[in-house]
């Protein structure tokens, strides 16, 4: 359900901090496929951009784990795999956007470029299609982190 990459349980509220112009963010990642989770983490790395540093990752393999983690608070960016089995990330995204007050920005991973309309329907803040482009993933996570910091 979660990975060893997760830090201590999240406190209530966002963890976005800006130190010397660097936004330090926490990322929640959902996919039932460990290779997809590994690909996203590798693409973003520790520094997806010069001004964005990922200080904490939480990997979830079930939609229930995502909901619990978001209820606990403290996540700045959420990445959901639209191709996940049982509970796809697109439907989960729409549910989260409708039910969570001030929901963190969400990046969805779609099955193909033509699924952009599904990402729009899901109310996602950004979308990256499969096959995953590491540069687009890093840019998207950095952009969403900046968006979250600006909203604060």
From TrEMBL:
Name of the protein: Transcriptional regulator
Annotated source species: Knoellia aerolata DSM 18566
GO biological process, one term: phosphorelay signal transduction system
Entries under InterPro entries matching the protein: CheY-like_superfamily, Sig_transdc_resp-reg_receiver
SUPFAM superfamilies per the UniProt record, alphabetical: CheY-like
Coiled coil start-end: none
Domain Response regulatory span(s) in chain numbering: 26-145
Keywords: Phosphoprotein
Transmembrane feature ranges: none
Modified residues (4-aspartylphosphate): 81
């Amino acid at each position: 359900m979660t990975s060893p990459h997760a830090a201590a349980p999240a406190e209530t509220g966002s963890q976005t901090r800006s130190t010397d112009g660097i936004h330090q963010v926490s990322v929640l990642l959902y996919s039932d496929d460990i290779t997809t989770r590994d690909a996203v983490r590798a693409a973003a790395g520790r520094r997806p951009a010069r001004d964005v540093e990922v200080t904490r990752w939480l990997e979830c393999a079930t939609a229930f784990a995502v909901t619990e983690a978001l209820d606990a608070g403290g996540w700045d960016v959420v990445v959901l795999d639209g191709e996940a089995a049982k509970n796809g990330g697109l439907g989960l995204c729409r549910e989260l956007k409708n039910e969570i007050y001030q929901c963190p920005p969400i990046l969805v991973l779609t099955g193909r470029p033509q699924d952009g309309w599904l990402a729009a329907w899901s109310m996602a803040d950004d979308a990256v299609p499969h096959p995953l482009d590491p540069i687009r993933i890093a840019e998207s996570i950095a952009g969403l982190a900046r968006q979250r910091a600006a909203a604060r």
